[in-house]
Amino acid sequence: VLIAVLYLFVFYFPNQDKAAGLERQIADKREKLQQVQNSVKSLDDLMKESQDLKAKLNEAQKELPQGAEIPELIKSISETGRKVGLEIRQFQPLEESPSITNTFVAEVPISLAVEGTFHQVAMFFDRLSKMERIVHVKNIDIEIAEEEGTNVSLLVEGSAITFRFLSDEERTKKKSKKKKRRR
Q1: Residues paired with 137 in a beta bridge
Q2: What is the pLDDT of residues 111-165, one digit of tens each?
Q3: What is the pTM of this model?
Q4: Which ranges of the chain does DSSP label H, i.e. alpha helix?
Q5: Long-range pairs, 94-97, Cβ under 8 A, ≥24
Q6: 89, 114 in Cβ contact below 8 A?
């Protein structure tokens, strides 16, 4: 019995405390491991979300040209009118202005006047709506230009607005101008 009691006090009880301490350390390490695994999963989700956002940005950039692409877009709109048989009377890019609703884009207005049949005008606007780029048509006035029997030629005047992304530099300048105005 003395040997058993001696064994308990010398070896068993001190090792029980160590074993309990080690079990607590194992539980803490498992908890930390779980937290790290959750962080890694969260990071993977964030990386996937970042890739999705980059893809959406690329899509948006296709719809909103950079400054150098604006002349090409204007040429494309003009060619669209000619292809459907419209007579282009006026097609003039106007001065660009910053967008009131969005700090990342600028509006590029185009004054236009075209003449053609109703069908040609409708086809022109339909093709504008199907372009990869965003083109907003507004302030349209339609009047009869010529009328010969059943042939009616319409004169359509208005404006088309397209948009372009502002560079970081341009956005910074825009913000500094707003701050100066507030003072």
Answers
A1: 160
A2: 989 999 999 999 999 998 888 777 888 899 999 888 888 888 999 999 988 887 7
A3: 0.58
A4: 2-7, 13-63, 70-83, 118-129, 168-182
A5: 94/159, 96/164
A6: yes
Measured over all CA atoms, what is the biggest interatomic distance in the chain, rounded to whole angstroms? 128
How far is Cα 174 from Cα 10, in angstroms, rounded to an integer? 79
The structure tokens 């010398």 sit at 10
In this structure, what is the dihedral angle of CA atoms 122, 128, 129, 133, given to the nearest 10 degrees? 180
How far apart are the C-alpha atoms of 37 and 176, rounded to whole Å?
Answer: 44
Which amino acid is present at 182? R
- Structure token digits, residue 67: 């400054």
Q: How far apart are the first and last CA of the chain?
A: 93
